[in-house]
TrEMBL record:
<dbReference type="GO" id="GO:0005096">
    <property type="term" value="F:GTPase activator activity"/>
</dbReference>
<dbReference type="InterPro" id="IPR050302">
    <property type="entry name" value="Rab_GAP_TBC_domain"/>
</dbReference>
<dbReference type="InterPro" id="IPR000195">
    <property type="entry name" value="Rab-GAP-TBC_dom"/>
</dbReference>
<feature type="coiled-coil region">
    <location>
        <begin position="228"/>
        <end position="340"/>
    </location>
</feature>
<dbReference type="GO" id="GO:0031267">
    <property type="term" value="F:small GTPase binding"/>
</dbReference>
<dbReference type="InterPro" id="IPR035969">
    <property type="entry name" value="Rab-GAP_TBC_sf"/>
</dbReference>
<keyword id="KW-0175">Coiled coil</keyword>
<protein>
    <recommendedName>
        <fullName>Rab-GAP TBC domain-containing protein</fullName>
    </recommendedName>
</protein>
<dbReference type="Pfam" id="PF23436">
    <property type="entry name" value="RabGap-TBC_2"/>
</dbReference>
<feature type="domain" description="Rab-GAP TBC">
    <location>
        <begin position="1"/>
        <end position="125"/>
    </location>
</feature>
Length: 364
């Protein structure tokens, strides 16, 4: 365990972008079975870098998704019945094959098979692509058993746990093994397994085409997801707009009700004003009739008043003339009185003078 922890710690420092992820310890542990620590680390780096195992461990695992898609397309092409059966059963390759690619079958497969798989991956020109061959070989060898499984749990158990048993040799009891004995360890037809895998024709250009198909589909899915996110944001914006419009509509409805009430009041007032107008028109008509009937009466009354005024004016003119004549007489009399007063005043003054003179005479 210390050796394994040391290799994993060294790789996490060597490649911080990957660091330590689940599944990597199975690859490192398998290398440590037959290599020194330094050699195991070097082989791990080579597998990750030169054999592109690293892409399977990056965030979002882009390499793993590509490998699973390539595997699905190969199953569809080479084992169409199995492909249809898995789809109908609701089984995807990620449910059972992910660990094949992440650990190079080291997670649950017997050590003899795993060691040969590592040898083939490292030593042959197809490198990590050989994992696809081994996976297809297992599916071909188990085709009849896979098609026979109708229950989902049975099918998954076969795919996840028992695919390699088709290469297991029959167990032969030893004389000392009984009911409670441990029994012999199972052995496997490793060469047959490797030969079945290597006999599968793996076209690099076809794998590249599958990779392109996946990337285009993934890109399309990403675009659709972005469109969905954009639509979701648009929906949020539209919902906010709808809520705002609903609030505005509620306010408009309130204002509409108020205007409707005002309109009703206006109509009532208008009806009242129309009634009053009709009444006023009736009054005006009555007044007009009265006015139309009055000119003759007014004219006669004016004539009488004019005649009376003329008579009064004539009388006043005569009286005025009489008064003027009387005033002329009075003015004459006033002048005569003034003359008489002046004469009398002179006489008075003369008498006073005489008296003064007489007094002076007596006194002397």
């Amino acid at each position: 365990m210390e050796r394994l922890a040391g290799v994993l710690r060294a790789y996490s420092l060597y490649d911080p972008a990957v660091g330590y992820v689940q599944g990597l310890h199975m690859v490192a542990a398998t290398l440590l079975l037959y290599c020194k620590d330094e050699e195991a680390f070097s082989l791990l780096v080579k597998l990750m870098k030169d054999y592109n195992l690293r892409s399977l461990y990056l965030p979002d695992m882009p390499g793993l998704h590509i490998r699973l898609y390539q595997f699905d397309r190969m199953v569809e092409e080479l084992l169409p019945a199995v492909h249809v059966h898995l789809i109908r059963s609701g089984v995807t390759s990620s449910m059972y094959a992910s660990q094949w690619f992440l650990t190079l079958f080291a997670n649950k497969f017997p050590i003899p098979l795993v060691i040969r798989i590592f040898d083939v991956v490292i030593m042959t020109k197809d490198g990590i692509d050989n994992v696809l061959k081994f996976g297809i070989a297992l599916m071909q060898k188990n085709e009849r058993q896979i098609l026979a499984k109708t229950k989902l749990e049975d099918l998954l158990f076969l795919l996840q746990e028992n695919l390699c048993t088709v290469y297991q040799n029959e167990l032969v009891k030893s004389p000392g093994s009984g009911i409670f004995g441990s029994g012999p360890e199972p052995t496997y037809r490793v060469d047959e397994f490797v030969n079945d895998a290597l006999d599968i024709d793996l076209d690099a250009s076809q794998l590249k085409l599958y990779e392109t198909e996946y990337l285009e589909a993934a890109n399309l899915q990403r675009v659709r997801k972005e469109e969905q996110e954009s639509m979701k944001q648009s929906n949020i914006t539209l919902q906010a707009t709808v809520r705002r419009l609903e609030e505005n509509l509620a306010q408009l409805n309130k204002e509409h009700i108020e205007l409707a009430n005002e309109l009703i009041s206006s109509k009532i007032n208008l009806a009242r004003l129309e009634d009053e107008n009709e009444a006023l028109q009736g009054t005006v008509a009555d007044l007009k009739n009265i006015v139309d009937a009055q000119p003759a009466e007014v004219e006669a009354r004016l004539k009488d008043e004019m005649t009376s005024l003329i008579e009064k004016a004539t009388t006043m003119s005569v009286e005025n003339q009489r008064l003027e004549d009387a005033m002329s007489e009075m003015e004459k009399e006033h002048i005569d009185l003034k003359m008489k007063y002046a004469t009398e005043h002179e006489r008075h003054d003369a008498l006073v003078q005489k008296m003064e003179n007489l007094k002076k005479s007596f006194n002397s």
